[in-house]
Amino acid sequence: xxxxxxxxxxxxxPWIFIFAASGSAVGLGNIWKFPYVLGQNGGGAFLLxxxxxxxxxxxxxxxxxxxxGRTVRSxxxxxVNDLSERHIVHSAWVIVPWLAGLSGFLVLAFYSVIAGWSLxxxxxxxxxxxxxxxxxxxxxxxxxxxxxxxxxLLWHSVFMVLVIVTVGQSVTRGLSAVVKVLLPTLVISLGxxxxxxxxxxxxxATLQFMFQWAWQDITFDVIxxxxxxxxxxxxxxxxxxxxxxxxxxxxxxxxxxxxxxVGVDLLVALLAGLVIFPLVFAFQIDVEAGPSLTxxxxxxxxGNLIGGQxxxxxxxxxxxxxxxxxxxxxxxxxxxxxxxxxxxxRFKAAxxxxxxxxxxxVAVLLSFNQWDTGVVFGLNFFELLDSITSLxxxxxxxxxxxVLVAWFIPHSMLQNEMITKRKSHFDLWYKVLxxxxxxxxxxxxxxxxxxV
Length: 452
Ligand code: PHE
Known about the structure:
By secondary structure, this protein is mainly alpha-helical. The protein has 18 helices and no strands.
């Protein structure tokens, strides 16, 4: 019998699911992507909209995704097929898990390249390359990494092998144990780094940038970026949480578990902001620098810290593990499906999908150097993939999934099977999903696209 069908009892404690789901949510999205998207979108206004998006879109859609995964306890594609065989939904809805799998696959392609940067920085941290580093040298260090495709290729490949080996085993085996140690250590490290950064950096400028906003700063671009970031950061709309929902204990309150995941995710992102921005302002790094922001700021912290070599090594190791616990959830959908449907061994399925994603990743890493010319709309391949996933595929995936759950799955089935027995919580979630999250995503996405 396929392995994942036997896993029903394994995630018996709600905390195990919470750790695993947080492992998927917390990753490069929080520490690398959130600070630079915040920087590019004006700070406070973005943060405000982002928090609203987490609450009114991210959380309800996350609950819907986990809940749907719990109905049939199979991989997302078979779940929808099963619902259609039982004449509950039309078979065309199978587009939702396919789209989700495609987004996860495309995200993995560039995620692995960025995780490769983290591995490269881990190696530099261990060698003590950050010691006494100035801001201009930190920036040169990153530029020279981008200019060396061979090195990026090496680390991208190492990371992809790690992903394949981990997914090839079994997604639950050991995952929550790792995350249980990883998450608290990551939060504590970021907390300490934030204290240091705040003490040496420009705190007033940071507070003003991150927490002050004006109405005119809230543009549709900012709102669209915030929705995309919220979905990406919570790993929603890509079938990852759907797959984890399949392993959830029936008695668990999805609302409670998902709220904790959202809280942890936001906490890590805010801490990352408080680590990075005081230095960005103190060293006059360009807030709108984009993907380089985190990788230029962090070495400066460690380079000027007593014991910096050790702390930098620990931190980049944590970052790589956090990236790994996110990356494995991107492949899980297709791997579980190939395994359950065609009885292909998990390892073989993971190799197949991982190698395909590796090839796409090679094009991504070349887009930072050899192919650094605009391909479409002036965007290079990395920017294109990032925009297509965060601003198009994820919102569409999340909208379709929410519509499926809110409008097509019978209310009684949802209530009985998916969500906690508390009726008031269920009603609140259902109404928010139906009347706030879906219309908000529709309006924001389509208006954002046409660039109003
Ligand atoms: N949420 C992860 C992060 O913040 C990224 C991710 C996206 C993971 C999609 C799984 C699926 O880094």
